[in-house]
């Protein structure tokens, strides 16, 4: 059985980012015991990631890189938000480097990094942490199977074997 749309795919992978000087930095490593499981072809994953594993079967490996414009986009130097300091009265003012969980007006959650704190505002960098980065993946396919009707209705995978319903 090979990976195609509406399959539930389980992979282990190692993700590095490639810095401008060519050096690789390890970002994330999953294992066979704790794989990434996802519904293929519904937009959960970076499209280029899915394209690179299309047609593979369990046991197959793939190594590929994805350029920023096909991953999390280029960094926008002016994507900064001035958050009024009053917003942090109760929680306390976050330090520079803190990660803020925010949501946009469509209800999407994202994270922003505090880059400056002034008397009036907390300045947060709204760029995705992986923006501007070349992604380097080493992937091993652990399993692929047709999604269940319930998984298709929910739009997500219920674990490697479909029994982890939620
Ligand atoms: Zn579900």
Descriptive account of the structure:
One of its GO terms (biological process) is protein refolding. Residues 6-84 form the PPIase FKBP-type domain. This is Peptidyl-prolyl cis-trans isomerase. Keywords: Chaperone, Cytoplasm, Isomerase, Rotamase. It is built from two helices and nine strands. With 166 residues, the protein is mainly beta. It folds into two domains: 7-72 and 132-154, Chitinase A, domain 3, CATH 3.10.50.40; 80-125, Thrombin, subunit H (Beta Barrel). The strands form two sheets. Strands 1, 2, 3, 4 and 9 form a five-stranded antiparallel sheet that branches. The longest helix is centred in the N-terminal third of the chain and has 7 residues, at 47-53. Bound molecules: zinc ion. Zinc ion binds at residues 154, 156, 158, 165-166. Residues 154, 156, 158, 165-166 line the site of zinc ion.
What CATH architecture of the largest domain do you see? Answer: Roll
**Biggest β-sheet: count, sense, barrel?**
5 strands, antiparallel
Helix-strand category: mainly beta
Uncertain residue segments: none
CATH topology of the largest domain: Chitinase A, domain 3
Spatial gap, N to C terminus? 26 Å
What does the average pLDDT come to? Answer: 93
For the secondary structure, the number of strands is 9
N-to-C order of helices and strands: EEEHEEEEEEH
CATH class of the largest domain: Alpha Beta
Radius of gyration: 19 Å
Share of residues in helices: under 10%
Please state roughly what percent of the residues sit in beta strands, choosing from under 5%, 5-15%, 15-25%, 25-35%, 35-45% or over 45%.
Answer: 35-45%
Question: Could you say which small molecules are bound to this protein?
Answer: zinc ion
- Helix count from the secondary structure assignment: 2
Shape: globular
Number of separate domains: 2
């Amino acid at each position: 059985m090979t990976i195609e749309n509406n399959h539930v795919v389980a992979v282990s992978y190692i993700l590095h980012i490639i810095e401008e000087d060519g050096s690789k930095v390890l970002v994330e490593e999953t294992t066979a015991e704790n794989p990434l499981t996802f519904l293929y072809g519904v937009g959960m994953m970076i499209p280029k990631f899915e394209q690179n594993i299309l047609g593979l079967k369990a046991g197959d490996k793939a190594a590929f890189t994805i350029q920023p414009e096909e991953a999390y986009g280029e960094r926008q130097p002016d994507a900064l938000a001035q958050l009024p300091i009053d917003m942090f009265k109760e929680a306390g003012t976050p330090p520079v480097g803190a990660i803020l969980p925010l949501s946009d007006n469509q209800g999407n959650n994202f994270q922003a990094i505090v880059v400056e704190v002034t008397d009036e505002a907390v300045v947060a960098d709204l760029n995705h942490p992986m923006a501007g980065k070349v992604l380097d993946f080493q992937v091993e396919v652990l399993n692929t199977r047709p999604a269940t009707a319930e998984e298709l209705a929910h739009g997500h995978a219920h674990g490697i074997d479909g029994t982890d319903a939620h």
